Amino acid sequence: MSATTDQATFFDVWITDRNLVYRKVPYTVVGNWVTExxxxxxxxxxxxxxxxxxxxxENPLLAAYLPKPEPVRIEDKAEALKDIxxxxxxxxxxxxxxxxxxxxxxxxxxVLLVFxxxxxxxxxxxxxxDSPKAANTLAIDSYGVIHVGIKDAGGGKLEYYFGEKYxxxxxxxxxxxxxxxxxxxxxxxxxxxxxxxxxKVPYEKVQEVTIExxxxxxxxxxxxxxxxxxxxxxxx
Length: 236
Prior knowledge:
By secondary structure, the chain is α+β, with helices and mostly antiparallel strands. Among the domains are: 3-65, 2-Layer Sandwich (Dna Ligase, domain 1), CATH 3.30.1490; 145-235, Nucleotidyltransferase, domain 5, CATH 3.30.420. Helix content is 29%, strand content 22%. It has six helices and ten strands; from the N terminus they run αββαββααββαβαβββ. It has helices at 3-8, 27-36, 74-80, 103-125, 172-182, 203-214; strands at residues 10-15, 20-26, 44-47, 54-55, 145-154, 157-162, 192-197, 219-220, 224-228, 231-235. The protein has a four-stranded antiparallel beta sheet with strand order 2-1-3-4. β3 (44-47) and β4 (54-55) form a beta hairpin. 15% of the residues are buried. The model is unreliable at 1-7, 134-141 and 222-236 (pLDDT under 50).
């Protein structure tokens, strides 16, 4: 094989986007690169041993390997202009009924309103102590006030409570122990007390609690009627 033939079958390849040059690449290898898409028409090539670069698309030996776009057929153009057919049809919105029947809702609301009106007062005043009906009710400021309740638990046994809700019962011994331990440490120091006694609680027990509270400078404000074995008497 002559030197001219060797030079004609070898190319220097310049991949422009990476600025990478391969020298003396066989013609068949360059053709495969073009076919595989590794070389684009804007890349440069030259015969090995020469100095002039040319675009790949301008080289008559290698341009044949570049992919050729298929010509647009008339059938393809006509098919592209056709309307797109969908497999479904949009459903028409059904006419909505603008008249909503509000009568059942109003009936339920009225029943609930009447129920809450009838039970609200009982929920606020419910206590486990069966106290007698008071002729008058005094509005007393609850700041600094101790609420004490005494209930007849049956069998001659009494239960004592603290607070307005009467959540936890105490025995007489526990009640007085709590008074002696907690009142000196209470902040702010209480100066008033409200005693609520059941209808069957002896007045003497109410008086004992009143005297015990007075030892700490606490006086009761208002009067709670408590029925005793001998009748009824107020506790101060």
